[in-house]
Amino acid sequence: MKRKFKIAAAALAAMAIFTACAGDKGVESGKLTVSTSINPVNQIVTIIGGDKVEVSRMVPAGSEAHDFEPTIRDMETLSKSKILFISGLGMEPWSDKAKETTGAKDLVTAELSSGMDLIALDDADHSDGEEDHGEYDPHVWLSLDGMVTMAENAEKALSAASPENAEYFRQNLEAFRNDVLELKGEYIPKFASYQGKAFVTGHAAFGYMCRELGLEQMSVEGPFQEGEPTPKKLEELISFAKENSIKTIFLEEQASPKVSETLAREVGASTETLNPLESEGDLLQTMKENYDKILKSME
């Protein structure tokens, strides 16, 4: 998928205005003011920050994260933030330029995927011939362990920016970690008898989930939704689905369903929706719903 970053000339001209706002930076109604990128980042920062942090999400629900272009209003909001929280690994190609454009020298970027055990991508997956997307699968939040690491990174950044609230952030982190561990304890045993089994989905977003659950994913599109597969790739998917008695082809809400629906018809399978959480959905509730759908498809 070709990704571009464009900032209107008016936004560049507004740099002086952004800089003039620096006196208000980081404080809104007594709260630490921060900006976030995509849905999972926004939710984690909101959970850990609680009522001590004013959070503004930049990439709106329903938007494709890789193609997002900040508006003038987004840039003004960012200029007043103490921290810009991103997931990293190529999910926010606009972030460095946005930070530079604000002229806000003390704006900190906190990358929540930092320190994770990453899944390397094949050459064909991280480059589409027009653009190099990076070496690693960026969908770290689709692992429960990944969510915890993201929350730990959020807590560190918030505590550094607002040390007087560090204990509050730590308590929120512990509560979130306990919720995640409870969900993990419920579902890891349920998948134990399906080790090595595969499911077919619209795009390859579920690598970290599969590693955690002991599953395998086959996908219509790569991790960056690079477009429709070649006829050869579609034939391979049809053969795989038939050979492995795949009964469900999963779609994602933001991926085109056309090829997945064609694949389902070819192999006599039904279709069901998985939510990769990139744009919307409550983190733990949606993970639970995804798990239940995958389990049902393997029964």
From TrEMBL:
Assigned protein family: Belongs to the bacterial solute-binding protein 9 family.
Name assigned to this protein: Zinc transport system substrate-binding protein
Keywords: Signal, Transport
Secretion signal span: 1-22
UniProt cross-references to PANTHER family, sorted A to Z: HIGH-AFFINITY ZINC UPTAKE SYSTEM PROTEIN ZNUA (PTHR42953:SF3), HIGH-AFFINITY ZINC UPTAKE SYSTEM PROTEIN ZNUA-RELATED (PTHR42953)
A Pfam family recorded for this sequence: ZnuA
InterPro entries: AdhesinB, Bact_metal-bind_prot9, Lipoprotein_PsaA-like, ZnuA-like
